[in-house]
Design brief:
Layout: E1 6-9, H1 25-38, E2 42-47, H2 55-65, E3 70-76, H3 79-88, E4 92-98, H4 101-107, H5 112-128, E5 132-138, H6 145-158, E6 162-167, H7 174-187, E7 192-197, H8 204-213, E8 218-221, H9 235-245, H10 256-267, E9 284-285, H11 288-296, E10 314-315, H12 323-332, H13 339-356, H14 362-368
Parallel strand pairs: 1-2, 1-8, 2-3, 3-4, 4-5, 5-6, 6-7, 7-8, 9-10
Helix pairs in contact: 1-2, 1-10, 5-6, 6-7, 7-8, 11-12
Length: about 375
């Protein structure tokens, strides 16, 4: 049996950090409903802050409407924030601490000793308040590996149930992520491991999947990959892969497209027709060799049935059409054609498609068969 792999959706926290995006409370509730349908294991609702006016209402909404959905809040390692979080009573508190010397020195004006003591104190305060604690290591991929491992051991010793490694500026490759996960796993006894990957070089989803396959238990995702700069690992891609290619899985991939379309609509984002798992035309084909294979057995050129993600298959006859595909489609339309004429009609169909700049519809195909 495959090792369980879990997703933390952070659309309402990291995703809302995208420039120009501010979800309303009603929009957030619709997104939460969609994530629950998809089968997300944990939802990071937002950042603990006096400016976050809707956290209490969202926590109540999740508890009453989706009691099986784990909730978490992102929190600085500050006592006042931890006390505020405790009043909201999330299932989990996600504490964040920088671990790279770059962040510690230039952003915080602190050193490694400060990071160790601050983290230990914060974990202790959160646990005293009865909260399950996850610790996120900011800028982990630029941290000294030995110090990163030491921080992971300390966090586990203090009672954190999960360590979350952040590729904060998206510089890691899958191979580097695998190495980091392997090293940190060696430092831990039973603590869960998670990753938060950014897409600055287009590898967020691949890095997240590489982490899961190399031993991480959790990976962060956002709808449409929303997030700082180029965004994060995309919910549609990672959840789609786990839901379709991994078994057993709680993910229901048929709910990904409606959720993605809703978020795209309220954020003025465009979903390209060829976008993996949610694009309208990902199961459209007009290549002759592929059409022939698809007509005989769809699994020859499809990794999964289109119905799994709520998309229809469209086999099109156009500029790349082959004879067998044309003959089969004509037969389906109740029109037989002599083999001696088939090559000529195939050439004619391809030429007309080139002129029109698109595949032909059934009416145009039948018209082309007339003398």
């Amino acid at each position: 049996m495959n090792k369980p792999m879990y997703l933390i959706d952070t659309t309402l926290r990291e995703g809302e950090q995208t420039v120009g995006i501010n979800f309303t409370i009603s929009q957030k509730k619709v997104i939460i409903n969609g994530l629950a349908l998809v089968g997300i294991s944990e939802l990071e609702i937002g950042v603990v802050s006096p400016f976050a006016r809707d956290l209490d209402e969202l926590m109540t909404f999740c508890r009453t409407q989706h009691p099986d959905l784990k909730t978490s809040l992102w929190c600085r390692c500050k006592e006042e924030d931890i006390f505020m979080a405790a009043a909201l009573a999330p299932d989990r508190l996600s504490l964040s601490i920088p671990v790279s010397d770059l962040h510690l020195d230039r952003k915080c004006g602190k050193d490694r000793t400060w990071a160790e003591r601050t983290m230990q104190s914060a974990i202790g305060a959160a646990r005293q308040k009865g909260m399950e604690v996850s610790v996120g290591f900011e800028d982990a991929t630029r941290a000294d590996p030995d110090f990163l491992a030491r921080m992971a051991r300390l966090a586990e010793q203090e009672g954190a149930f999960r360590i979350r490694l952040a590729d904060t500026v998206g510089i890691a490759t899958p191979v580097q992520i695998i190495r980091m996960v392997d090293e940190i796993k060696k430092s831990l006894c039973s603590c869960d491991l998670a990753v938060h990957t950014h897409n600055d070089f287009g590898m967020a989803t691949a890095n997240a999947m590489a982490a899961l396959e190399s031993g991480a238990d959790w990976a962060d995702v956002t709808v449409l990959g929303l997030g700082e700069r180029s965004g994060c690992a995309r919910l549609e891609e990672l959840a789609g892969y786990l839901g379709i290619m991994r078994s057993p899985s709680r993910i229901q991939p048929e709910h990904l497209k409606p959720l993605a379309e809703y978020v795209a609509g309220i954020t003025n984002k465009t979903i390209n027709d060829d976008r993996p798992l949610i694009g309208d035309k990902i199961f459209s084909c007009e290549t002759g060799l592929h059409l022939h294979g698809l007509q005989r057995d769809p699994t020859t050129y499809e990794p999964y049935p289109p119905e799994r993600v709520g998309i229809a298959r469209h086999l099109l006859l156009g500029a790349k059409c082959g004879r067998k595909a044309l003959k089969k489609r004509l037969a389906e339309l109740g029109h037989e054609i002599d083999n001696d004429l088939l090559l000529q009609k195939t050439h004619a169909l391809r030429e007309k498609a080139c002129v029109l700049g698109r595949p032909l519809n059934d009416k145009e195909i039948l018209a082309g068969m007339l003398p």
